[in-house]
Amino acid sequence: MTTRPPVGAGTPGPVRPLALSMGDPAGIGLDIALRAWHRRAENAVPPFVLFGDAEPLAARARMLGLGNLPIEIVSDLARVHDVFGTRFPVRPAGACAAAVVAGQPDPANAPAVIGAIEAAVEAVRDGEARAVVTNPIAKSVLKAHGFPHPGHTEFLGVLAEARFGAENVKPVMLLAARELKVVPLTIHIPLASVPAAISKETIEETARILSRALTVDFGIAKPRIAITGLNPHAGEQGTMGDEDERIVAPAIAALAREGLNVTGPHPADTLFHEAARETYDAVLAMYHDQALIPIKTLAFDTGVNVTLGLPFVRTSPDHGTAFPIAGTGEARATSLIEALKCADAIAARRELAAGCDGA
């Protein structure tokens, strides 16, 4: 039996703060950022700075009954460590063009949402922040303003190439919790498009990225990866589709020859119960819901979205904008707090692995 390390466990971090993007200001991103800051002492929340518009943040605090929020506008992020204990640090990253109404997203504010993400990434690139944590966005709202990317994960891959000069970036979505770690091979595509998007090469590349991340980012010396089949019963010897015998199994065999500890293809319907979870450290699943349904069932409030394969650390809460409850006080900050702790821990491990003190 292998003991899985807590998502937020890691080496205490240095002075540099985490860069938290505001997300869609009409959603719960502002709510949970406020909750995380107010619970910073009791939950040992690492220092963060919100990239975005301070005005809707202050308004949301009043709406939630938190009074007049003590906001500190910071240009020098080295000050965040000292400020964080008494004031909420904000770095302006584009003002919202339209009035922010909780629960009512406006595409006119899309540039501010996108600008906050870009500014947070640039702060990490410039050495001002140690990791990016993103609040939820609404892809449909951004698309209404011409946003061309399928989602956050893909956009961050583009930013990695544009802002860091990285080449051939392959962002990989890992959903992590104490109970389970899982990667969907395909993400934001229709289910009907999944079989054509699966290839031996993609499985191999994704498994390698996942294996490295489990070792470096999560401290698992010899990670065990279970790989699901695409079809029910993993194809049942080709009687329910041939993709598992034709594509998935050969990829697993090739990875095993490289020395990776991989098994499968496993029927997904028997892979996520408690006893099965003791046999692996992470699962590589074939498509979005095959991966996300089990982790959201097991750890809806504590799961963390981690983007692997980037030249910087990025995490986010494992939930969406939840427009219907924005501003009501019902939003729980647990997943964001876990995402902040996870980002801090991964950054510390990467700095240690690189022989860097992070100062």
SSE order and pairing:
Blueprint: E1 18-21, H1 29-38, E2 48-52, H2 54-63, E3 71-73, H3 80-83, E4 88-92, H4 110-125, E5 131-134, H5 139-143, H6 152-164, E6 172-176, E7 181-184, H7 194-197, H8 200-216, E8 224-228, H9 243-258, E9 261-266, H10 274-277, E10 282-285, H11 288-298, E11 304-308, E12 314-317, H12 334-353
Parallel strand pairs: 1-2, 1-5, 2-4, 3-4, 5-12, 7-10, 8-9, 8-10
Antiparallel strand pairs: 6-7, 6-11, 11-12
Helix pairs in contact: 4-6, 8-9
Sequence stretches where pLDDT stays below 50 over 5 or more residues: 1-14
Range of helix content? 25-40%
Any idea what the radius of gyration is? 20 Å
Average the pLDDT over all residues and give the rounded result: 92
Question: How much strand content do the residues show?
Answer: 15-25%
Query: What strand line-up does the widest sheet have?
Result: 3-4-2-1-5-12-11-6-7-10-8-9
Give the CA-based shape.
globular
Largest sheet: 12 strands, mixed
Structural class: alpha/beta
Order of helices and strands: EHEHEHEHEHHEEHHEHEHEHEEH
Provide a concise account of the structure shown:
With 359 residues, the chain is of the alpha/beta class. It has 12 helices and 12 strands. It has helices at residues 29-38, 54-63, 80-83, 110-125, 139-143, 152-164, 194-197, 200-216, 243-258, 274-277, 288-298, 334-353, and strands spanning 18-21, 48-52, 71-73, 88-92, 131-134, 172-176, 181-184, 224-228, 261-266, 282-285, 304-308, 314-317.
Describe the overall structure.
- The protein is an alpha/beta fold and 359 residues long.
- 36% of the residues lie in helices and 15% in strands.
- It has 12 helices and 12 strands.
- The chain has helices spanning 29-38, 54-63, 80-83, 110-125, 139-143, 152-164, 194-197, 200-216, 243-258, 274-277, 288-298, 334-353, and strands at 18-21, 48-52, 71-73, 88-92, 131-134, 172-176, 181-184, 224-228, 261-266, 282-285, 304-308, 314-317.
- A 12-stranded mixed sheet has the order 3-4-2-1-5-12-11-6-7-10-8-9, sandwiched between helices.
- Helix 8 crosses helix 9 (243-258).
- Residues 1-14 have low confidence and may be disordered.
